[in-house]
């Protein structure tokens, strides 16, 4: 399979190269799942079928449930009146938990196949285990990169509304990309596909880097959606509103350094 060959080459790359590739794949995956959601809505409007839109609705329900649960817990601690901090911390915790799940899932897959390998008795069994491990690790990698929940949650937005996703998404997808790379590196350390692997200290640094980028995204997202709503209500061009708002925000921050 060409996909598996690509994946083996990907795993053998340096960490910075893997992060860059994964970052762009995360954006591509988001746009792909977003487009699939839009396509489902389009077909549902033609065929008047609830069955077609059900996947998008389920994804929206699942995707927002975790955030609402976290938000409720955070607002109890921080205080419901501090809406910005509550939203930001909820976003950070929710998305970083997602990053940890990605890392854990990739690592767990490697661990399970490593155990199978230890119990294998014949060369044929070992070859089959290695082949299946590489195949399913690749599939899991693709699934995490496409990240269908993220794209489908925003399915009610228009394409031009995605301008609102760019500022916080720039950091969010970097955080996700780093977590995917950390998961792949962890899997390769547990059950190697290529000989080189990172130390656990460097893996921990990747997790920390993921948290930092997710945190930056978390503090930007409420601002982005505020600008989005302000522009929509006041009938401002969205791109102009974002450029103007962030220009003033950056100038304000510079003046107070």
Automatic annotation (TrEMBL):
The chain crosses the membrane at residues 20-43, 91-113, 133-153, 173-191, 203-223, 235-254. It comes from Methanocaldococcus vulcanius (strain ATCC 700851 / DSM 12094 / M7). Keywords: Membrane, Transmembrane, Transmembrane helix. The keyword Transmembrane applies. This is Uncharacterized protein.
């Amino acid at each position: 399979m060409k996909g598996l060959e690509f994946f083996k080459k990907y795993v053998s790359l340096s960490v910075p190269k893997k992060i860059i590739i994964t970052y762009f794949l995360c954006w591509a995956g988001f746009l792909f799942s977003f487009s699939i959601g839009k396509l489902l809505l389009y077909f549902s409007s033609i065929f008047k079928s609830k069955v077609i839109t059900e996947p998008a609705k389920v994804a929206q329900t699942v995707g927002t449930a975790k955030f609402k649960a976290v938000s409720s817990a955070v607002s109890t601690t921080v205080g419901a009146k501090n809406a910005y901090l509550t939203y930001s911390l909820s976003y950070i915790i929710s998305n970083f938990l997602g990053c940890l799940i990605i890392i854990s899932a990739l690592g767990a897959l490697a661990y399970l196949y490593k155990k199978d390998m230890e119990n294998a008795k014949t060369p044929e069994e070992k070859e089959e285990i290695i082949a299946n491990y590489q195949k399913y690790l690749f599939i899991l990698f693709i699934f995490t990169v496409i990240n269908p929940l993220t794209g489908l949650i925003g399915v009610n937005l228009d394409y031009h509304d995605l301008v609102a996703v760019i500022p916080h998404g720039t950091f969010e997808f970097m955080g996700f990309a780093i977590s995917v790379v950390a998961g792949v590196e962890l899997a390769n350390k547990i059950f190697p596909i290529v000989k080189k692997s990172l130390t656990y200290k460097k893996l921990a640094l990747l997790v920390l880097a993921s948290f930092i980028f997710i945190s930056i995204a978390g503090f930007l997202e409420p601002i982005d959606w505020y600008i989005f709503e302000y522009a929509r209500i006041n009938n401002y061009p969205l791109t102009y509103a974002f450029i103007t708002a962030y220009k003033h925000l950056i100038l304000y921050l510079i003046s107070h350094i």
